[in-house]
Structure formats: C-alpha cells, structure tokens
Write a structure and sequence with these properties.
Elements (H helix, E strand, L loop, with lengths): L2 H25 L10 H4 L5 H8 L18 H5 L3
The chain binds heme C (HEC) (2 copies).
C-alpha cells in the first residue's frame, strides 16, 4: 500500500467517525440524558413535571427547552 492510500483511508475513517458522532444526536433524536444529573431528576416521569422546571416561558435555573410542545420527554432524554 502506498503512503498516499494509507493517508486517504485514515482521513476517510476520521471524517466518517467524527460526523457519525456529531450527527448521531440528531439522527437518533436523542437529547442529552437526565441521567447526567440524577439528583435533580429522580422520580420525575411526567412531561408536565419536566415543564415545571424547563418551560422557556417560565424560567428557572434549569436550562429551558426549545421544544416545550414535544410529548414524551423521556423517550429522548432518558438515554444511557
Ligand atoms: C424527539 C426527541 C425529543 C423529545 C420528545 C424531547 N426532546 Fe428535549 N432535546 C432533544 C434533542 C435532540 C436536544 C438537543 C438539541 C436541542 O437543543 O434541540 C434536546 C434538548 C433539550 C434541552 C436542552 C438541554 C441543555 O443542555 O440545554 C432540554 C432542557 C430539553 N431538551 C427538555 C425537554 C423536555 C422538557 C421535553 C418534553 C416536553 C423534551 N425535551 C422532549 C430531543 C427531544
Ligand atoms: C425540579 C426541577 C426539574 C425537573 C422536574 C426536571 N428538571 Fe431537567 N434539569 C433541571 C436542572 C436544574 C438542570 C440542570 C442540571 C442540574 O443542575 O441538575 C436540568 C437539566 C436537564 C437536562 C440537561 C442535561 C444535560 O446534561 O445537559 C435535560 C435534557 C433535562 N433536564 C430534561 C428533563 C426532563 C425530560 C424532565 C422530565 C422527565 C426534567 N428535566 C425534569 C431541573 C429539573
């Protein structure tokens, strides 16, 4: 194998790997997981509870969501 081929393959692998990571978030529609902050989110199961803290119209110290109309918050935010 020529050095040029090796470089091309390395580059391609890097591009595929990095874009895979960046876009997985959106393609899989998986949001950041609430498991990063279990002490805040233990026992929370209802969308209405989520919105008590994350409603952009009623700010708290929690980061506001840009999609308060979504249903089933935990489908996307309970990821591993
Ligand atoms: C279809 C999947 C999906 C659903 C359903 C969903 N989210 Fe999200 N959420 C995402 C994704 C993807 C992101 C990251 C990209 C973004 O900010 O739009 C995100 C980002 C967020 C953030 C921002 C976190 C940060 O660090 O700033 C909050 C807060 C949030 N969501 C709350 C909610 C709440 C509350 C609900 C229910 C009303 C909900 N989400 C429903 C996919 C979803
Ligand atoms: C009692 C208020 C409260 C409730 C209820 C609540 N959150 Fe949060 N959430 C927070 C706070 C505060 C943070 C910021 C991180 C922290 O300090 O724990 C946060 C962080 C987040 C993040 C960002 C995680 C990250 O790592 O970027 C998401 C996504 C999120 N919450 C979604 C939800 C969903 C979905 C629900 C409902 C199942 C919910 N939250 C219920 C207060 C709350």
């Amino acid at each position: 194998m020529t050095i040029k081929k090796v470089l091309t393959i390395t580059l391609l692998t890097l591009i595929i790997a990095s874009s895979g990571c960046a876009y997985r978030h959106y393609l899989g529609m998986h949001g950041p997981t609430i498991r990063n902050s279990p002490e805040t989110h233990t026992g929370v199961t209802e969308d209405s509870q989520c919105l008590e803290c994350h409603n952009p119209d009623d700010p708290t110290d929690a980061p506001p969501t840009n999609h308060p109309g979504f249903k089933g918050c935990l489908k996307c935010h309970n990821g591993a």
